[in-house]
Amino acid sequence: MDIDKQLETLKKCTYLPEHQLKQLCEKVKELLIEENNVQPVQSPVTVCGDVHGQFYDVLELFRTGGEVGDVNYIFMGDYVDRGYYSLETFTYLMALKVKYPSKILLLRGNHESRQITQVYGFYEECLQKYGNPNPWRYCTQVFDYLTLAAIIDQTILCVHGGLSPEIRTIDQIRAINRMDEVPHEGAFCDLVWSDPEEIEGWATSPRGAGWLFGKKVTNEFNNINDLSLICRAHQIVQEGYRYSYGEENLVTIWSAPNYFYRSGNVASILILDDKLNRNYKIFSAVPDEERETPPRVSMPIFL
Question: Serine/threonine specific protein phosphatases domain: which residues (predicted)?
Answer without folding.
Answer: 107-112
